Amino acid sequence: MNISFSPPFIDQQVIDEVLDTLHTNWITSGPKVKALEDELMAITGSPAAICVNSWTSGAIMALNWFGVGPGDEVIVPAYSYCATALCVLHCGATPVMVDILDDLTINPEAVLARITPRTKAIIAVDIAGLPCHYNRLNELIHAKDVRDLFVPASVKQADLGRILLISDAAHSIGASYQGRPAALMSDMTIFSFHAVKNVTTGEGGCICLNLPAGFDVATESRYLKMLSLNGQSKDAFTKSQGGSWRYDILFKGFKMNMPDICAAIGLAQLRQYTAVLLPMRKKIYHKYLSAFMAQDWFIPPVYADGIRESSCHLFALRIRGISEEVRDELIAELALSGIQANVHFIPMPMLTYFESLGYQIADYPESRRQFAWEISLPIYPQLRDEETDFVIDCVLDAVNAKIGSVEVPALTD
Ligand SMILES: *Cc1c(COP(=O)(O)O)cnc(C)c1O
Q1: The total number of structural domains that make up the chain
Q2: What digits encode the pLDDT tens for the residues 237-277?
Q3: From start to end of 298-387, where are the E strands?
Q4: pTM, entire model
Q5: Which ranges form a coiled coil (predicted)?
Q6: Does the residue 412 lie in any domain?
Q7: 352 lies in which domain range?
Q8: Candidates 86, 168, 198: which one to mutate for ligand 1, based on the most atoms within 8 Å of Cβ?
Q9: Which of 197, 225, 282, 402 is catalytic?
Q10: Any idea what the CATH number is for the domain that residue 301 is in?
Q11: Active site residue 197
C-alpha cells in the first residue's frame, strides 16, 4: 500500500466550486472570499473574519496592526513551525521562546517567567489541534502586576492596555474550549489553509477577531481588509462595479489578500467540515488511540480533557524514551512499507537560522524530549479503514521489534 501523509481533500463539490469561480470570470478577492469569511464566522463564533494569503501573512498583519516593532518582544513556544517566530522577526521584533508542557502546548508558567515591559504579544500554538491552556493564559495577561508592566507604544496598545493574546490556530479549526469554539479564547485567532491543513485553499489563512469591548469590530475588520490590500480605500471587486473606479491609498498596506479561486476550494470543504470531514478525522484518531493504548511505550496524545477538545489535525504518536535516531529509523521503516509519516515539529532552536540568532535547544528540554519521541501518522478524511489498519499493523510491528532490541531508559515521569 502507498499511504501519503496529508493529501488535500478534493471532491466533486470542491471541483464544482472552483469551476463556478472560473465561469464567473472573477478570480481574485470577491464573493467567494466573502462567503468563506461568513462560514468562518459561523464555525468560530467570531464577529469578524479577514481572509489572507497565508497564516504567516495574517500574523504579520496582526502584529503590524498592534504596532509591534523593533525593541518589542513576542512570546512564542519553541515547539512550533518556524512561521510562529518568523512573523515576529519580519516585524523587527524579538521572538522570546519558551518551553512546552507534556501535552505539547505552550507552558503558561514559562510564559509568565519571560514577561517583561517589552512584551507586546503572546502567540499560543494549538498544536496538533489541541487548544492551549487559555484560561491560564488569559488570567496571566489580565493580572494586575502583568498589566502594570505593560508599556503601550501605539494607539491600539493603549486601547487594549495589556499584552495581546494571539492564537496560532493553523491546526485547530473546529477545536473547542469549554464547549465553545476555541477561537473565542484569544484576542485574535489565525488559521492556516495551507495544503496540508484540515481545511485548505492551497495557500491561505484567516484572522478572526475577538477583541474586547472598546474595539469596534467593524472598524478594525475594515482596517485589516485594507491592510491586506495596499491600504487601498476600495477593493478590486467594488471598483469593478460600474462607475466606481476611483480609489485612494490611505496608508502603507501589504498585498496579502486571498483570491476567490483559492477561497472556492476552502468554501466547499468548510461547508462539509463540521458534519462530515471533522468526524471522519476523529474516527481515525480514535482508531489509532485504541489500537496503541495497550502498548506500554505509547504516550497517548490528548484528544479531550474536559475543557479542551482537539480538531485532530495530527495524530502525534509518541514512543516513550526512544532516541531521535531510533525515531528516524522507525519512520524509515514505515516508508519502506509505503507509509509516509512525519515529525511535528523540529523545535525552532534546532534549526540553523534560529541557532545563528543564539537560541539553544538546551534551554527547552521538554521540546527536545517530545521531539525525539514524536511520529505524526497519516490522518485525513480520505484515509480508508483498511489503510488505517495497515498503518496500525506496520507501526506495531516496527516499534515492538525496535523496542525489543534497544535499551529504553526507565520512566522518568
Ligand atoms: C502551517 C503552520 C503555520 C504557517 O502557515 P502558512 O499558512 O503556511 O503561513 C504556522 N504555524 C503552524 C503551527 C503551522 O503548522
Answers
A1: 2
A2: 888 888 888 999 999 999 999 999 999 999 999 999 999 99
A3: 298-299, 308-309, 315-319, 374-377
A4: 0.97
A5: none
A6: no
A7: 278-403
A8: 168
A9: 197
A10: 3.90.1150.10
A11: yes
